[in-house]
Amino acid sequence: MAPAKIFLSFCILCVSLLISRPVSAQTKPAFACDMSSNPGLKNFSFCDQSLDVKTRVADLVGRLTLQEKIGWLVNTAKGVSRLGIPDYQWWSEALHGVSYVGPGTKFTGLVPGATSFPQVILTAATFNESLFQIIGKVVSTEARAMYNVGLAGLTFWSPNINVFRDPRWGRGQETAGEDPLLSSKYGAAYVRGLQERDDGDKDRLKVAACCKHYTAYDVDNWKGIQRYNFNALVTQQDMDDTFQPPFKSCVLDGNVASVMCSYNQVNGKPTCGDPDLLYGVIRGQWKLNGYIVTDCDSLNEMFYTQKYTKTPEETVALAMNSGLDLNCGDFLSKFTQTAVDRGLLNETVINGAISNNFATMMRLGFFDGDPSKQLYGNLGPKDVCTPANQELAREVAREGIVLLKNTEGSLPLSPKTIKSLAVIGPNANVTHTMLGSYEGTPCKYTTPLQGLTASTATVYQPGCADVSCGAAQVDAAKKIAAAADAVVLVMGSDQSIERESLDRVDITLPGQQQLLVTEVAKVSKGPVILVIMSGGGMDVQFAKDDPKVTSILWVGFPGEAGGAAIADVIFGYYNPSGRLPMTWYPQSYADKVNMTDMHMRPNPDTGYPGRTYRFYKGPTVFSFGDGLSYSTFNHNLVRAPKLVSVPLEEGHVCRSSMCSSIDAVEHTCKNLGFDIHLRVKNVGQMSGSHTVFLFSSPPQVHNAPQKHLLGFQKLHLEPQGEGWVRFNVDVCKHLSVVDEKGNRKVALGEHLLHVGDLKHSLNLRV
Question: How far apart are CA 606 and CA 46, in angstroms?
Fold first, then answer.
């Protein structure tokens, strides 16, 4: 989700203004059907909790005038006082904690901050599916607590589940990385954490989540090419095996209450005006139980920037007839009436849209009267920023931090032997940078410098005025480095380098950061730890190759407790277990590959190298899944089949002819699967967590991925401890590929399964 262009700098860049503006002390939430103050409301069926949602919604919609209906097609919804319905602001955000982006949420003296978890890309690096859901549950509890005192809404336009296709994308930090399976698992789990109620009522919602931005959205502003009118040219194959799976999972597995359509066009059609994508797929195929909302001012962009329709009223009709329910912005409030008057839009379509919107609000309890008498009515300021929630933010950051290089004798540092630590770099003592984008005011901050100083004596030099590092202060940094027992350099980026509406051109460390690192390393007498704080990957091949740089850590944007988590890893209080959720490419990739080329697969004829670990065939700085530990974990394959037969019905063409693949259809796939059993042993001296990845290299039919992730599991083992991991492999789900037309096919022949250094050959035949 993104604000209107005019609003963007206010919302994202000048956040400090938003925090400091005076806010009236509001202590009452917005809700309808307040029978204590208006007993006459009990005569309305829409206020009767004993009736089902469909009946209540039909009653409500039947009582509204057309103008009143139009008031509920936009995010700043207009109340209907004669029916006891207040104004409501749909737009709140909760990407990695309750956010102040969006007018639906405010921080005041009553609730000055909320728990700020790591930016999503670092949470994804934990590869801990249960943790994704736990974070969502904590965030929704804090959101409900803020709603109860009038400081937040109930509808949160999070998570961002787009695939991190290109390393330059400024919003890659908001995502779970480049792998469709990880993105799918993250999105569905976070949504369940946000939405599921503690009483187990599947028809009701704690808060309503929203999966965005649908679809093939991952260009913001690159070399002047803007998301507002970008036309993503996507093959059906790439659409169905890369861009769509996270959204499908969000709806089917997460039961998300909303999907947001994006600014861009896909193959010449605006996503918010494409009936095939909205009505056909989201509602028709996936059966969304909820509402479809535009990205902010998408309809303005469709008309004024893309010039896709001749009149505003045609834009209204196109979007609503395509399946749109809610407009972030005011376009529908301005032009829907005239669209109806001109015969372009039938009021029954409006009825359908507001029915979806009202049904969501009823599932949230908005029409059930006083929230203090409902399930979450006892939540309040005491439930925000609890010690347990703040500790969880630290734990998530620790678990996500990725150790990318570690020379023997470098990490972990011992506070007993390191008596002086030089801490250098533009991100070494930052606060706000640690949060990333779509942030809220945190409970408190622990900077990297503060975290490190808690364990040993430190000397600090920023080394650069800011992350752009126009002129590195090399001499001052070298002076403290040469005198210290060890050096920690905290480098990287911030929102001035990569963010919404700002894609990168270069993927190297900004400005003279590389010079600073190299010069400091030269004069250091002990370990040199390079800490990279960033959303996207960086070409740090120079540091990987420099023997004087003894360790490299990537810490994402690690959230409010980031500094404590970094120190926990550096001093060995925590054994790192994070793994990269995206490929780190060399700068030559950014120089060669056009960011707007949406093709995932390589093209040998043009030299196009493809994208992500699934298809890219060129050199990398670090690879998807990379990550070291202070321990060593061994894998042992205990059980896996070498041959699996796929049953075919009588007369199937592949019984008599050679086939390279068969359709993954229900009667073929039913109960067709097997288990893989593995034993994992920690042969190191330190307890720690370990992620076990199961990859497959399928037969090279239909331009299949060279390798793709089938599953991942995380386990914790004591020194010399053993654990068992079982993967259930569904042949049609896991061993199938998408063909050129978007159909799912079971690839026949040899599938090579990978777990760590193990490889196991599996033959699939009819």
Answer: 61
